[in-house]
Amino acid sequence: MSAQHTLSGLSWDRLRIPVVVAVLAVLPVFFFNPSYTYISRLFILALVFATLALALNIVFGHTDQLFLFVGALTGLGAYGTALTADALGVSPWLTMLIGATLAGVLGGLVCYVAARRRFTVILIAILTLALQLAIIETFVGARDITAGSTGFRFSGLGLEPLQNALGVYDHVVLYYVVLALLTGVMVLYHYIQHSKYGMAFDAIRQDEIAAEAIGVNVVRYKTLAGFTSAFIIGLVGPLYAQLDSLVLPAMFEFSVIDVLVLIILIVGGIRTMLGPIVGAAVIVYINEELQAFGQWRTVVFGFLLIVLFLYFRSGIVPFLDDVLNERLGLKSTIKSIVTD
What we know:
Layout: H1 3-31, H2 38-61, H3 70-88, H4 92-116, H5 121-141, H6 143-146, E1 152-153, H7 160-166, H8 170-193, H9 196-206, H10 208-213, H11 218-244, E2 246-247, H12 254-268, H13 274-289, H14 297-311, H15 316-328, H16 331-338
């Protein structure tokens, strides 16, 4: 590799996150309208699902542990934050870490048991799907605590003073709060990829037995990956609930969150930083546009997904990398720009 290509790759590696964040930060200036909040809601949803997909990317993309209870973990974060804030009489900003820790501990525990028992990716998927169903039913059944299937109002993040001081409406402030979380997750993801943790994760994904043979503590690293991903997902929970000022079980069901997160990750490009962001933008837009099809929405959505999977088998971001490499011949430079 030439020195020029190396410098170009290093330059983009340092600038990638600031450039992406800067682009996302200016979008409200062009698209948000205080009299028409539908568009701003879509942008926030895209950031929420991009963050969830990037979190899942850590545990699934890099250690082959398929979480099918992302919705339940998001719900634990939301319920844990709201209920403990009400019980303790403090701001939800102080209890967000409690909700996230509940989700993180559950994710870490699942990965610890799965690693110790040497569960395959299929068994982990079955286990987490069972937990997803059980946790959602718990949210519904514990009516005295969670208000059951009707849920309860949640507007406790206290964004009103800030939005009044800035002279903006609620969705603008919430957008930048979610963007700040996504930025932190991107920084963490970048760190993991370029640290010993990323090397250990990839060694485990490629060959777990070989990784153990060279001294990688598989149980420890799988548990760490599970805790980290679940903790991030738990942090997203109260922000997701804040969007509609509600906390109810239906918001966290498998069909509402997990299906979309998996599709976003695969369509965007697994094991890439930009994949979840691109995938979230595409899928959230398509999903909302298909509302007009009514009962045919699921059929049309499924057909479009088949087309996407056929033309972007490894994801949109890797596909763009391959196209640019083939047409422009700038293999090392373009690869450093488009992918990780």
